Amino acid sequence: MDSLPCKGCKGLCCGPVPINIKELKNIKKKIKEMPFKKRLELENQHRYYGTCIFYDLDNDLCGIHGVRPSICRAFGHYNNLICFKKPEASKGLNWDVPEKPIGILSEDFTWKDFK
To answer: What is the mean pLDDT of residues 24-39?
Structure first.
């Protein structure tokens, strides 16, 4: 897949983020393994309303990139999740949720759920 020009977006495309049970477990494991100082820095950042709680605004990148949810992996590569900075990256298809979500990051799951 082509890489997307995410630098400079400040996570504005990163939300809402539905997650399934497997993604929740992977994120919890990632957060638990994260150095305390890094986790605290990520947790205490101010974010734009609706932006994913794991978007690292200070460094302009995903704080859990290796275990990011499937919608994040799909973003920019499907017509219904198009990146306006690079629309040509879209496959011309629409993305469907591969597994039923159990909730939305920042709404149903907040930092208190990952401690």
So the answer is: 96
